[in-house]
Amino acid sequence: MEYVGRVPAPPLDLFIDDIYCLTGVPRHRRTNVPPMPSAHLFVNLGGPARLWDSDPSVLPEVLTDGWFMGVWTRRFLVEYPTWVRLVGVHFKPWGISPFVDMPATELRDRWVPVDAVWQRSLDRIRNQVGDTASATETLRVLEEELRSRLAEAPSRGLDLVQHAGRRLETSHGAVPIGALTDAAGVSGNHLATQFKSHVGVTPKRVARIYRFARLILSVDARRPVDWSELAQTAGYFDQAHFSREFKDFTGHTPTEYLALRRRFPAEQGFPPDSGPMPAD
C-alpha cells in the first residue's frame, strides 16, 4: 500500500497528529493494533473492512463506509479489503473532542459509524473525492471537512485537558499525575473527570499508553534488543509489570513480538509506527 500523510494546517494541528491516505494492495490483510495515544477517523472509499475486538464478548463488525474510534485501552484487529482506498485522521488523545458532540467515553474502545456522529457527511466527502482524486486532493477535502466541524469555542475543561495532555505527550507519559494537578491547581478527581469527558480515559491511563508507545517505537528489530534497558528508559521499573502489560497490549511476549517484527519488517515509505503488526 502507498501511504501519503501530512500534518494539517493550524489550528487543526493542535488536535490532530496527521491526516493520511492509504491506497493499494495491503501486504498483510489482517493487522493486530495495540493501544496507541490516538483517536481515529476512517473514511472508507474502497471495499468493506472487518474489525475484531480482543474482548471476545464483543461481536465483530463489517464496516463499509466510515467510522470513528476513540482511544483504545486494549488491542483490536482490522482486516483490510483486497484493495484499500481509505483516508484517515490520527487525532491526539484529546483531539477528537472539539469535532464530535458527544462524551469521549462513548467512543472509548468502540467503533461508531461516521454518519451516526457527522450526519450526511460521508456522501458529501465521497461526491467531492470521486473515484479518481489524487491523495493530495483527497486530503484537502478531508481537511476542509475537519475545519468546518471544529467547534468555534472549546467546551468546558478542554483547555485543562489539552495542557495536561501535551505534558504527557512530550514526556512520553513520564510526568507524575500529581505534578499535573499541582501545576493546574486542580484536584486529581477534577482532572480525571475532565479527561474522561474529553479523552474517554483517565490521565493515568493516557500516561500508560504514551509510555508503551515510547517503548514499542524504540524497538529496532534489525539489531539486538535489550528489553530491560528499553523498559527502564520508557519508565517501567518493575519487570513483571512490563512483561504483563506488553502481553496485554500486543498479545505477544517481547520475544515473540521481536520475532514477528523480524519476520515481517515494516513497509518502506510508511511512517515510523512499529505498533500495528501482522495478525497471521
Describe this structure in words.
This protein is an alpha+beta fold. It folds into two domains: 2-149, Jelly Rolls (Sandwich), CATH 2.60.120; 158-278, Arc Repressor Mutant, subunit A (Orthogonal Bundle), CATH 1.10.10.60. It is built from ten helices and eleven strands. It has a six-stranded antiparallel sheet with strand order 1-2-9-4-7-10. β5 (49-53) and β6 (61-63) form a beta hairpin. The longest helix has 16 residues, at 203-218. It is globular and about 50 Å long. The relative contact order is 0.15.
Question: Main sheet: which strands, in order across?
Answer: 1-2-9-4-7-10
What is the level-2 CATH architecture name of the largest domain? Answer: Sandwich
How many discrete structural domains? 2
CATH topology group of the largest domain: Jelly Rolls
Q: Count of DSSP E strands? A: 11
- CATH fourth-tier homologous superfamily of the largest domain: Jelly Rolls
State which percent range the strand residues make up: 15-25%
Tell me which oligomeric state these chains represent: single chain
CATH class descriptor of the largest domain: Mainly Beta
Largest sheet: 6 strands, antiparallel
Q: Given the C-alpha coordinates, what overall shape results?
A: globular
Q: Give the ordered list of helices and strands.
A: EEEEEEEEEEHHHHHHHHHHE
Fraction of residues in helix: 25-40%
First-last Cα distance: 18 Å
Tell me the Rg in angstroms.
19 Å
Structural class: alpha+beta
Spans with pLDDT under 50 lasting ≥5 residues?
Answer: none
Number of helices: 10
Summarize the structure.
By secondary structure, the chain is of the alpha+beta class.
